[in-house]
């Protein structure tokens, strides 16, 4: 099937959001390794260059020119299956990606009894080559920021800084909002944005299902595209260009 007409024309950079990769499971947040490989090959064949998170942030700030076809690949939560299934594919295709890690997994909250949802340990996170995976924040207990007080949000982020530093794990100071949720009251959200600026959090990602605008009009509202287990390669190609399957 010829899908070239669907390929992104370069107005912005698609930021792809993944979660779990697991054999023979396809649901809202889980894809098979074969699906992921097909999608990565699609990117490769169509000339996309995957960006590191620091590269993307500099482009979003307007400090660096965007490549003709750039893409930011992200994975939420820090699942162990990202190590076993994603890492080898990134090496094979020479792609790079970002993992948004839940802070309390560094305290040992790994869900070891549940293979599908098991998180990476400190030792496992340290094995990741930053050429292929960069690490950033996803809350401390995966808090819902729309129902969490500003004080508790700030505490969760500070705890995440501290535990990464304690274990000497490199951290890009960027955040993916858990559940994509932000404070609902504008004044509170504006206060949080200013607090993040003051604490050198350079960017924050929501969902939004749109190709992210470059340079970004708001570094704390960067949109990502939700890639799901029931997406065909045709659906993936449409999302890559439009952000959602029914954009009109």
What is the CATH homologous superfamily assignment? Glycoside hydrolase/deacetylase
Strand elements, count: 10
The CATH architecture can be named as: Alpha-Beta Barrel
Mean pLDDT: 95
Radius of gyration: 17 Å
What is the distance, rounded to the nearest whole angstrom, between the alpha carbons of the first and last residues?
Answer: 23 Å
What does the main sheet amount to? 8 strands, parallel
CATH class: Alpha Beta
Determine the CATH topology: TIM Barrel
Unreliable residue stretches: 1-10
Helical fraction equals 25-40%
Percent of residues in beta strands: 15-25%
Total domains, how many? 1
* Secondary structural class: alpha/beta
N-to-C series of helices and strands: EEEHEHEHEHEHEHEEH
Number of helices: 7
Shape: globular
